[in-house]
Amino acid sequence: MAKFRDKIGSGKFVITCEAGPPKGTDIDKTLEELDEIGYLVDAFNVTDQQSSVMRLGSLAVSHRIQDLGYEAIYQLTCRDRNRIALQSDLLSAEILGLKNVLALTGDFTTMGDHPHAKPVFDLDSPQLLDVICQLNSGIDMEGNELKGSTDLFPGAAVNPGADPVEPQVFKAKMKAERGARFFQTQAIYEPEILKSFLSELRDEGVEVPVLVGILPLKSPGMARFMNENIAGAFVPDRVIEGLEKADDLVEESLNVCAWVIRETSDCCQGVHLMPMGWEEHVPELLDKSRLF
Amino acid sequence: MIYSEQKPWEEIESYLRRDEKLFVLGCGGCAAASGSGGEDQVEELSEKLVENGWQVTGTRVIEFLCNKGLVGMRLARVSDRIEKADAILGACCGIGVQAVGKLVEKQVHPANDTVSMGHFHGAWPSEETCERCGECLLEYTGGLCPLTVCTKGLLNGACGGSHDGECEVEPGRPCGWELIYGRLKDIDRLDLLATYNEPKAREKYQFAPEMEKRKSLFWAIEAGEGGENG
Q1: Phi and psi at residue B88, in whole multiples of 5°?
Q2: Which of A42, A49, A84, A181 meets the CB 3.0–4.6 Å disulfide criterion with A14?
Q3: Would you call B157 and A167 a contact, using CB atoms and an 8 Å cutoff?
Q4: Which residues of chain B does A125 touch, with a Cβ-Cβ cutoff of 8 Å?
Q5: Do B181 and A123 count as a contact with CB atoms less than 8 A apart?
């Protein structure tokens, strides 16, 4: 069973949803919330100490999600593990039945709640993708033969809103060359930015399927904060004004996301949802997007 | 180049017994360059000690306290004043404190904290940096070292965390990979941005220096005097 990989491989539209492990061991509520929307998504994308905040691990939570009958995309960052730990965790993922892995650099240590931690970054994300492919082929980074290889479907993140964007095009191409089989983007609110980025990628011969990142804006303030602080985020003024004037903020926010999904459905092969507390609104969002 | 900063006076003071006689020793190498162990700082430290009731038997600034051969010769000229002292206050890096401690059978108090250079490689007016990785990548990165200009030391392009050209880590800190991109663009070698750099051989950071390959005048003096690294 590797539904997500098969579906992407067959060119079908896929929906993934971010799942944030809790700060602590109380996993039941998290799993219940995911279970409620599980029927709508092809895979849950489990974050790895997101924003450098120490939490329950993505490996264990990915496993628990698969126990519920859903597929997980196991996120793995280079921030906290050297190459020995990264490879070992990937082998562990395989025997826990995980199918997909998203290779990320990771935010810097000082961004989170353990700013005194030692940042590792022994590898970077293209190197990690390379390692995943090596483990899939039955050897480790040093060329040692494995007794049993992995069969993990590797993905990576791209940042279409970066300015300048050219280095991101180079990097996306490098990630594709190092084995990325799908991309998910940062949150998009202006479809033209994504279309232009994808056009450059296609010009470079990169044909990796792309999932558009969708993060519902909780308030006009959040939109402004993102514009000022979040890498590659761009919320157009008209979107912020729309949120300010809206009678129903939730509905307006979902309308914006649904519009982005519709506008990009011809150039993207899927959606990566980041509800971040708005899991209950996911059915309505997908309904508005007219994906079903 | 090893960068050091003077400790807070309260901390230095806390090391010293009230009746202790002190010889103040500075380093004319890195510590002088760091502004923490040159003539001025040694004089200031000495005056402060006297003001606060300590007896100073003498002062000296010696180039490169890390070089035991040289230090031995220089200290021999002031041996009487060192003899009169109970201890030495070393305005230098941790290496200097340890090296002097091996030469003089007296306690050497550290006046400085040896701090991370933040990849800063010299006190001369220059911002070039080197991690001494043993596998130079400057050819591919426009002459800017990705290990040091990128906070995360990434070898294959920006992480995507920069905002308006600033690193995610702190305001005002440029994204190293944007600098590399800019330089490569300036020299019309953007093609190099497509170079995939393999993971670093990190053990090269850990190996003991191969002294045979690094012979110098200072090395010769050191090896002749101490013989321990030869």
Answers
A1: -115, 140
A2: A42
A3: yes
A4: 156, 159
A5: no
Token digits of residue B130 = 């080197």
Per-residue pLDDT in tens (0 to 9) along chain A, 292 residues:
689 999 999 999 999 999 999 999 999 999 999 999 999 999 999 999 999 999 999 999 999 999 999 999 999 999 999 999 999 999 999 999 999 999 999 999 999 999 999 999 999 999 999 999 999 999 999 999 999 999 999 999 999 998 889 999 999 999 999 999 999 999 999 999 999 999 999 999 999 999 999 999 999 999 999 998 888 889 999 999 999 999 999 999 999 999 999 999 999 999 999 999 999 999 999 999 987 5
Chain A interface mutation, best of B140, B147, B152, highest count of A Cβ atoms under 10 Å: B152
In this complex, do B199 and A167 lie within 8 Å of one another by their Cβ atoms?
A: no
Provide the token pair at A96.
Answer: 């826990």
B160 touches A at CB < 8 Å: yes
Q: B54, B16 in Cβ contact below 8 A? A: yes
Tally of CB atoms within 10 A around B182: 17
Q: Which residues of A touch B174 (CB under 8 A)?
A: none
Residue among B157, B167, B202 minimizing CB distance to A171: B157
- Here the ipTM equals 0.86
Give the H/E segment covering residue B223: helix B217-225
Domains of chain B, start order = 4-114 (3.40.50.2300), 138-199 (no CATH)
Nearest CA-CA distance, residue B154 and chain A, Å = 6
Pick the CATH number of A3-288 from 3.30.70.360, 3.40.50.720, 3.20.20.220, 3.30.420.10: 3.20.20.220
B:93-152 residues touching chain A, CB 8 A cutoff: 151-152
Amino acid letter, B99? A
Cis ω for the linkage preceding A275 (within 30 of 0): no
